[in-house]
Amino acid sequence: MTFQRKSNCSTEKKEKVLYYADRLHLSAGYLSTIIKRVSGKTAAEWIDDYVTLEAKALLKSTNLTIQQISDELNFPSQSFFGKYFKRITGLSPKEYREKN
């Protein structure tokens, strides 16, 4: 199974590059290098894109609390999820939900 398929199957969980590299029997550095060469994005950027898409979908289409979404996506805390989401989108999860 390719990295893209594995990461698509795991969008509900925030995992590190090492998680996918282990499953593909590669080093994290090598996986990231190959993915970047092929797609122009690092493996971490792919993971961030998929996790952010899932977070946006959950914020838009469910009544789950931000804490529940954080838990669903396997973040260590709601605070960490909020900072992660804001770093990528420019909005807090609450702001994103209110605007969408």
UniProtKB/TrEMBL annotation:
<dbReference type="InterPro" id="IPR018060">
    <property type="entry name" value="HTH_AraC"/>
</dbReference>
<dbReference type="InterPro" id="IPR009057">
    <property type="entry name" value="Homeodomain-like_sf"/>
</dbReference>
<dbReference type="Pfam" id="PF12833">
    <property type="entry name" value="HTH_18"/>
</dbReference>
<dbReference type="GO" id="GO:0003700">
    <property type="term" value="F:DNA-binding transcription factor activity"/>
</dbReference>
<protein>
    <submittedName>
        <fullName>AraC family transcriptional regulator</fullName>
    </submittedName>
</protein>
<keyword id="KW-0804">Transcription</keyword>
<keyword id="KW-0805">Transcription regulation</keyword>
<dbReference type="GO" id="GO:0043565">
    <property type="term" value="F:sequence-specific DNA binding"/>
</dbReference>
<feature type="domain" description="HTH araC/xylS-type">
    <location>
        <begin position="21"/>
        <end position="99"/>
    </location>
</feature>
<keyword id="KW-0238">DNA-binding</keyword>
<dbReference type="InterPro" id="IPR020449">
    <property type="entry name" value="Tscrpt_reg_AraC-type_HTH"/>
</dbReference>
